[in-house]
Amino acid sequence: MRVISGKYKGRRLVTPKDLSIRPTSDRVKESVFSSINHKVRNANFFDLCSGTGNIGIEALSRGADKVTFLDHNIECHRLIEMNLLKCGIEKKSPQIKLIHSGITKGITILQNCSEIYDLIYFDPPYNAGLYTKCLSFISAASLLKPSGLILVEHEKRTDLPNEIGIFSRDRFKQYGNTHVTFFRHQNFSQIAK
């Protein structure tokens, strides 16, 4: 696992010792970031269910202003901290917000801080059944800017609705068994068409 492009290009990141944490593959990460690269620079980026921090660190490397990492697993927090240090980034940097919390509590914390994001990458454990509930909660908390995107990584067999709260499906990309579905604000989608 490595940083694909940008300031930290080529840095090797620490990977989990077992399969309990599933990092996004370099192939998927490279393709996804190629499709959103114009939106990453100067963005406020939310890496939800961040695991190793692989996605959020790629966003920082490509010029994101700030990245929030949220994961409930303490091992994930250790991995994120190690990977940030591999790139010379202190966890206390003003660019970084690292939250050790479950999704619902973490989103409430961010809502109370009036955080709003340009890009949200949501990659929960595939079989945890969190997709619709969490996207509804993000919608209710108004964490996404009207022009923003939510990218949801999931298995091919996962059936996501076309509309969730104020979000509607925009498109998806397929990489073997891995899919990434893009959601936008419904009103923005209608204006953009």
- Estimate the helix proportion, in percent: 25-40%
Number of strands: 8
Q: Tell me the strand percentage band.
A: 25-35%
Mean pLDDT across every amino acid position: 91
Radius of gyration: 15 Å
Poorly predicted regions are: none
Question: Which class do the helix and strand fractions yield?
Answer: alpha/beta
Main sheet: strands, sense, barrel: 8 strands, mixed
Number of helices: 6
Coarse shape: globular
Q: What is the element string, with H for helices and E for strands?
A: HEHEHEHEHEEEEH
Strand order of the largest sheet: 3-2-1-4-5-8-7-6
> What is the terminal-to-terminal distance?
37 Å
Describe what this molecule looks like in 3D:
By secondary structure, the chain is an alpha/beta fold. Helices cover 33% and strands 27% of the residues. The protein contains 6 helices and 8 strands. The chain has helices at 26-40, 54-61, 74-86, 103-112, 131-141, 186-192, and strands at 44-48, 66-71, 96-100, 117-122, 144-155, 163-164, 167-175, 178-185. An 8-stranded mixed sheet has the order 3-2-1-4-5-8-7-6. Strand 4 (117-122), helix 5 (131-141) and strand 5 form a beta-alpha-beta unit. Helix 4 packs parallel to helix 5 (131-141). The protein is globular and about 40 Å long. The model has no long low-confidence stretch (mean pLDDT 91).
What's the SSE blueprint?
Blueprint: H1 26-40, E1 44-48, H2 54-61, E2 66-71, H3 74-86, E3 96-100, H4 103-112, E4 117-122, H5 131-141, E5 144-155, E6 163-164, E7 167-175, E8 178-185, H6 186-192
Parallel strand pairs: 1-2, 1-4, 2-3, 4-5
Antiparallel strand pairs: 5-8, 6-7, 7-8
